Amino acid sequence: MTPDIGEINAKIERESAFIELIKLELDKVIIGQHYMLDRLLIGLLANGHILLEGVPGLAKTLAIKSLAQTVKADFSRIQFTPDLLPADLIGTMIYNQKQESFSVRKGPVFANFILADEINRAPAKVQSALLEAMQERQVTIGDSTHKLPEPFLVLATQNPVEQEGTYPLPEAQVDRFMLKVVIGYPSKEDETKIIRANLGMEYPKPSQIVQPEQILNARKVVREVYMDEKIEKYIVDIVFATRFPKDHHLAQFEPMISFGASPRASISLALAAKAYAFIKRRGYVIPEDIRAICKDVLRHRIGLTYEAEAENITTEHIISEILNKVEVP
Predict the structure, then answer these.
(1) Range of the domain at 48
(2) 125 and 233 inside one domain
(3) What are φ and ψ of residue 208, in 5° steps?
(4) Concatenated DSSP letters for 192-208?
(5) Is the N end or the C end of the chain the one with fewer CB atoms within 10 Å?
(6) Given this model, what pLDDT does residue 123 score?
(7) By CB neighbour count within 10 A (0-12 exposed, 13-18 middle, 19+ buried), where does 153 fall?
């Protein structure tokens, strides 16, 4: 049964008003970078964690911090370093001599927005502690399990330039991120505006304008956005083309791909497309929504062989070819 699109549109109109308010607040602080800001909002609405990759100085940290400031919620910034321990992240048991008992001291991960800065600087032990928090939305300290607050969003950054003193994220952990957003340099006009803004007497700050309840309500509406069976088939075809390129007339990529995208990619692609339609104030998903966010969802979920690296073939190149070959509904 096809749902009433008009009804969904009316609901979106009501529930998405705060999106424009957030954008206005972020525009005060972040110049340009609309692509990155849209992806941050998709993560917020689709309840998915985001990995931002880009050279230093592209306002990754500032964007995440500013987004958190627009919401009346707790924010934690964790600077990842090689000597960081899991307890520094999730907390630990503290012995109280007076009471002769242990009590839990919660770590910075107990917040609504977590900025994991330079996540690839910490060793695997710390990364796996964050993994449970991201996937299970809970943390185990000692013998007790603690639920994390809602909404809970991990926004991690990594610097692709430096390789010294870094620990590449394992594939299993990278797969936990709904989107991997690669950020480029601003345009000349934007760069000029950035210089002016930073030389001003006072740097603008975003205002707190959104309650966490509004985000949780919007997330429910995002799931109600209508997705036709043809769009579902389109998502499945794209994901299967990363696993079995030969079946989709992409035999040249067979030796290039060591593993394709997981079922988590299909779920993320569907949810992110619904969130993208929600941001565009639309009650249904169209193929353009899938194409718009496909690279962000898939670029970190396709494994490349040495052959691909030798020939300078990137996951982005493969995704572009897949989008050209897979039939659009």
Answers:
(1) 8-215
(2) no
(3) -80, 115
(4) HHHHHHHHSSS------
(5) N
(6) 82
(7) buried
